[in-house]
């Protein structure tokens, strides 16, 4: 359960997930005039989530209990005298460039695919690389499975490159996307091939350029990131063991990169891609020969990019590119769509290695 850890005396002031799946939101704010919670579990990001007032107690502790909620990870915000903030009583803020949101997990019984379970655990490595393309140092996150061979004397591993979305940070796939928990649980069930997952920055850092620079991010992947991974991790070098995926802006980056490097990848996952990539000159025969798995997943209720992704699907179909296009029932532009997309995509990768 992703909630703040505090001394016993302070526990009564913290937001808490209760045993029945309800959540008690609490805030110690004796000088506040109003406190409300915006629970975004079922809200469209394009619309403001409804606010529920907290009730102020005689000791200045504001609280309200909502739910119960179905097992899942949720987002919420507090509104204090009209100011939107992350919950100071929750130690798990959403990884955002401007942090205004907190995360909480309502565990399943039995545990859900995104829950921490009693299985062997892999590791998340935080690497700092010197990026020649971006002219600065950059952080790279790498998941390795529980049986990862650190001494490089055993088998080499397939690799998945996984891009985050706009407005979020490199930690989004780890803290909110639950990539480690999903991989650990699937590996324990024998449903996926042991692999390395590399999570790069999706934004450009070149001075004077736009942050969403497809070209520079792509160049960094092949100039700086892939050579670093090859030097420091025991990975397979042939294209049939390389996959790439991303959500939203990262989905668009994935499309740009995979179409420009068909000789390097065998699978691509585009989840709610912010479609802004030209398909002019794309050779369908080459794409179909290279990509054994090429999927687009978008929430059926995603009004942010849904129409663009339907257009992308139509364009790919019209030029003869083989792919799957799936609408996640009721899904919006959020991790509620992308975590299951990752869960399903992982199970399609590198089947001959299991």
Rounded to an integer in angstroms, the radius of gyration calculated over CA atoms is 21 Å
Strand residue content: 25-35%
- Mean residue pLDDT: 89
Write down the CATH topology of the largest domain: Rossmann fold
Count of distinct structural domains: 2
SSE ordering: EEEEEEEEEEEEHHEHEHEHEHEH
CATH superfamily of the largest domain: Alpha/Beta hydrolase fold, catalytic domain
Number of helices: 7
The strands making up the biggest β-sheet line up spatially as: 10-11-13-12-14-15-16-17
Biggest sheet record: 8 strands, mixed
Describe this structure in words.
This protein is an alpha/beta fold and about 350 residues long. It has two domains: about 10-105, Immunoglobulin-like (Sandwich), CATH 2.60.40.10; about 125-354, Rossmann fold. It contains seven helices and 17 strands. The strands form three sheets. Strands 10-11-13-12-14-15-16-17 form an eight-stranded mixed sheet, with helices on both faces. Strands 3, 4, 7, 8 and 9 form a five-stranded antiparallel sheet that branches. The protein has a four-stranded antiparallel sheet with strand order 1-2-6-5, with no helix packed on it. β14 (about 240-245), α4 and β15 form a beta-alpha-beta unit. α2 runs parallel beside α7 and α3 (about 215-230) crosses α4 (about 250-260). The longest helix is centred in the middle third of the chain and has 19 residues, at about 215-230. Residues about 1-10 have low confidence and may be disordered.
């Amino acid at each position: 359960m992703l909630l703040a850890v505090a001394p016993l005396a302070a526990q009564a002031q913290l937001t808490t997930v209760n045993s029945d799946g309800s959540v008690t939101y609490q805030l110690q704010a004796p000088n506040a005039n109003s406190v409300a919670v915006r629970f975004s579990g079922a809200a469209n990001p394009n619309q403001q989530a409804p606010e529920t007032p907290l009730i102020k107690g005689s000791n200045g502790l504001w609280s309200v209990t909502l739910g119960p909620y179905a097992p899942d990870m949720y987002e919420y915000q507090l509104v204090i005298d009209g100011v939107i903030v992350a919950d100071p009583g929750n130690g798990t803020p959403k990884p955002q460039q401007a942090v205004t949101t907190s995360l909480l997990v309502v565990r399943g019984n039995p545990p859900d695919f995104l829950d921490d379970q009693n299985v062997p655990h892999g590791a998340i490595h935080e690497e700092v690389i010197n990026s020649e393309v971006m002219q600065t140092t950059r952080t790279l996150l790498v998941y390795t499975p529980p049986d990862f061979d650190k001494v490089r004397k055993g088998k080499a591993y397939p690799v998945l490159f996984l891009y985050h979305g706009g407005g979020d940070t490199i930690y989004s796939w780890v803290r909110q996307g639950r990539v480690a928990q999903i991989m650990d649980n699937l590996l324990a069930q024998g449903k996926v091939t042991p692999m390395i997952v590399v999570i790069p920055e999706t934004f450009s850092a070149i001075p004077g350029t736009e942050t969403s620079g497809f070209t520079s991010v792509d160049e960094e992947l092949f100039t700086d990131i892939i050579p670093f991974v090859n030097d420091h991790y025991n990975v397979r070098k042939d294209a049939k063991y390389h996959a790439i995926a991303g959500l939203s802006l990262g989905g668009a980056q994935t499309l740009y990169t995979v179409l420009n490097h068909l000789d390097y990848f065998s699978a691509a996952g585009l989840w709610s891609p912010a479609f802004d990539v030209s398909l002019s000159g794309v050779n369908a025969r080459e794409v179909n020969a290279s990509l054994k798995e090429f999927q687009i997943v978008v929430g059926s209720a995603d009004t942010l990019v849904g129409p663009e992704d339907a257009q992308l699907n139509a364009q790919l179909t019209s030029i003869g590119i083989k792919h799957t296009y799936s609408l996640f029932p009721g899904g919006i532009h959020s991790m509620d769509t992308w975590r299951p997309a990752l869960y399903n995509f992982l199970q399609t990768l590198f089947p001959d290695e299991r």
